[in-house]
Amino acid sequence: MRKITIEPVTRIEGHAKITIHLGADGNVERTQFHVTQVRGFEKFTEGRPYYEMPGITARICGICPISHQLASSKACDAIMAVRIPPAAAMVREAIHCGQMVQSHALSFFHLSAPDLLLGMDSDPEKRNVLGLAEKHPEIARDGIALRKFGQSVIERLAGERIHPSGIVPGGVARPLDVVVRDAILKELPNAQGIAWRTLDLFKCILDGFPAEIANFGKMPTMYAGLVGNAGQLRLYDGRIRFRNADGSIAAEVDAPDYAAYIGEASVSDSYLKAPYYKPLGYPAGIYRVGPLARLNAADCCGTEAADAELKEFRERFGRMVDSSFHYHYARLIEAIYCLERLKELMETPAILDRHVRARAEVNAAEGIGVAEAPRGTLIHHYKVDENGAMQWANLIVATGHNNLAIGRSVEQVSKAFVKGDHLEEGMLNRVSAVVRAYDPCLSCSTHAAGVVPLRIELIGPAGELLDELSNER
Amino acid sequence: MGPAAAEVLRAEGIDALAVHQLTPELAERIAGARTVIFLDADAGTAPGEIAIANVPVVAGALKPMEHHASPPALLRLAREVYGARPDAWLIAMGGADFDLGDSLSDLGKLAVAKAVAEVSARQCARLRSK
Q: Are strands A262-265 and A274-277 parallel, antiparallel or unpaired?
């Protein structure tokens, strides 16, 4: 058997390796997706006061710290047994919208657009944001502006752009100022314009990827995401809905009951665990999370423009869209939703209320907080002693839920595109690209602090290393 | 060390940002400047000392930025997207102790002071030349 190794997988957050095993006939026999990081947050936070957890867990990641702060603060709210003031919930959700926009902008424009707009087979030296800027400066400018807007929302509402201090147990640290509110409202139309024209551009180029659409994780799985009472998309709060591949709802679960439905399996060749839908067992209980999964799980977005786009999306690809290539499309619809939702929140007078924090002591020994991170459902589960010292923590992070799906997607793409008798860089780029479609955050999901980049190895029938791709330049 | 230097420079009226990492949207900020100076703690520079280097815009292949960028990549992005070509320098500040702590070492403070003095001197020279 020959083995191909792709290391590092480029243009993702974190470190991962892909091993492709070729059979004697030169065709792909099997693949492995290895995540090579270990971090230890769940262990080293033992003994810390629970109210430090939002600040500590925010530092799992520099890309989606808000998600961790939100889920962590919600877990702390549960330990305190408080219902946070309505204005605090709205400000938290507004910060979350800002984060979703900046994260989705980074994912699309900087990480995936080089493949989508320059071509999967284009010169790898130029297939990056600098090459994109050279050929399409206006698109690069849009990407920078949209991400900057999202970052500015976070900074204005939460204090800092990265690892902000404004999301706290019991609510938020400070009320929303009317001047800040007005500034955000003034800048929103420009951000919305960017999101709309980016989606329009993407819809135009989509027909250029039939092979990728057919082979980038096109498979039946369950989907999971938060929904509201009317089945609408929810990112900050809601119930966890599991929907089957055929569109039927398998379960709808309150956050405290997640453990009855989500199990975690350890895999031998990766530090990333593999969550699965418990009633179906492992690995039959494979499910996907993140933008595509959320749009499949929800009945609607709940905002006008996003719902119009969602309707078009479903008319084009079916009610249950099952190709992971369409994470890109879903991500752009979500950006539109978040900007609309942000506008709704900013235009709600009650968001300016000065009461934004509930205060209490420890009133429960356990707290669970769930929110939708840009990449999928994020769960923080804490146990504390009577003094509030952390005794135990479990973090099930968005990308972790997608571990099984990413692995199967890598196998599908490898079998479709990798031919062992004549390796081409574009083949291996597609293997990396399917991982990028999920926009994984591997640092988050592995609880890793490593410098091992992502590597693809090609291994021959006799176990010899035939070829490898590395990101060391 | 970077944030400490930025705080002092802001007090002197210089536009200074303290960031965890260089991100793509900084290209827009850079594009509006005539001169950009990057300040960073550096284990390879003698503790308490600074090393100054010009940061060129690299025309050829660069390690591409992903979630964070290098100074040359940011400058390149500023050029490609905004047509901007600011002068750019990197001041490496030699650190002494990179373990967790709650304050800078004496040598770290010395390097910060030297870096701040260098930036201030360049700013004064620029203003005099106007």
A: antiparallel
